[in-house]
Design goal:
This protein is an all-alpha fold. It is 71% helix and 1% strand.
């Protein structure tokens, strides 16, 4: 195996690759996720994984019945990929000094820069730059010429993906870095600002939650105040009339309805499924989950892995989280209203960094 001596470069490379999760290629898939996975395999030894076998067992447990009763090989491989990446990334962090704050900041600034390039080009130069479409097989969904509806998303296919990236990044800056300096605070507020400027409903709804958590976690109030003031003073530049209409008519808004399908499905599960299916799930299968059951992680876990899967996932977080449990668990549950990201490397990257110190503490106690 190749042992990369500069762990900062290794970390930055992995973070950059998984942050490109929205660059999809026909016939291949999320190639940057695969590159990050292979990169970890090249860095680590089998002994690193064996040493953390308890973590592997813990992460597999919520999904065990979905895995055992799987009905679609692609769906199975997707979840196994995600879990495996989480374990490998933890092993990588456990093997390094984890003094990677500057790497995180550097990668985030790159994606923020790409967002502003696209935003400024359209708003002030009347030029639409489809960055994600240029770099992948799928054109971006951030501009609808027929109604002149533009929402910047930088290197992501759509604003919701950029908002998800920002959400992960902001929470990592709040709970997953060691040093809380001025640079971190500026990058954090830029992420909050651009998340709202993307006109993603999830991003705008998450904005007050993240601002409150930023205040609680001692982010400089002056930085937060300036950021929010800039957003308020420039709302007529970044806030689209279509977005306002979506909020006014939010009950019938399509993306909200997609999530409500999941709520309706909960009632369906309770009345139409067998006790076995309700408790242990139906097994992983690729049947158009988003269309049939809603774009939220609760429905995904309940349908595929049953009540056991959802409750055991939350129980594991409760067991390992020794610091700021309510805040971190609340962030996970809040994110669960979004589409399921369990097969994405960045989701597991986020969980590991969010709970890294707590996992490490639990692992040490388990050895005693």
């Amino acid at each position: 195996m190749i042992i990369l001596k500069n762990t900062n470069i290794a970390f930055a490379t992995i973070f950059f690759c998984i942050s490109c999760f929205d660059l999809y290629y026909y016939g291949i898939g999320r190639v940057f996720d695969y590159l990050a996975f292979v990169f970890l395999l090249c860095i680590l030894n089998i002994s690193d994984v064996i040493k953390n076998i308890k973590l592997l067992i813990a992460l597999v447990t919520p999904f065990i019945f979905g895995i055992l009763f799987f009905q679609d090989i692609k769906a199975l491989l997707g979840i196994l990929f995600g879990i495996s990446f989480g374990v490998l990334f933890y092993c990588f962090c456990d093997k390094t000094s984890r003094n990677t704050d500057k790497c995180i900041i550097g990668v985030l600034l790159f994606f923020i820069f790409a967002f502003f390039v696209q935003f400024i080009a359209f708003k002030f130069l009347n030029t639409y730059i489809d960055l994600a479409g240029f770099l992948s097989s799928i054109p971006s969904r951030n501009y609808i010429p027929s109604i002149d509806f533009f929402r910047a998303s930088g290197l992501f296919q759509e604003p919701n993906s950029y908002a998800v990236f920002c959400y992960f990044a902001i929470t990592v800056l709040l709970y997953g870095v060691r040093y809380y300096d001025f640079t971190r605070d500026v990058v954090l507020i830029l992420l909050i600002m651009t998340m709202a400027m993307s006109n993603s409903l999830f991003g705008i709804i998450a904005l007050p939650v993240l601002c409150i958590l930023a205040l609680v976690n001692k982010v400089r109030r002056s930085v937060i105040a300036i950021g929010l003031m800039v957003l308020a003073l420039t709302y007529n530049v970044w806030l689209e009339s279509v977005t306002i209409s979506r909020f006014i008519d939010i009950k019938s808004e399509s993306s909200i309805q997609e999530r409500l399908i999941g709520a309706k499905f909960l009632n369906q599960m309770a009345t139409e499924q067998t006790v076995f299916e309700l408790l242990l799930g139906n097994g992983f299968k690729n049947i158009g989950f988003q269309v049939q059951y809603g774009t939220n992680s609760f429905s995904y876990l309940l349908y595929n892995c049953g009540v056991f899967g959802l409750l055991s996932f939350l129980a594991i977080i409760y067991k390992i989280d020794k610091s700021k449990f309510k805040q971190k668990t609340g962030l996970v549950l809040f994110f669960f209203i979004n589409a399921p990201y369990f097969t994405y490397a960045i989701f597991w990257f986020w969980l590991i960094l969010l709970f890294y110190n707590d996992i490490k503490l639990s692992m040490k106690k388990g050895k005693k």
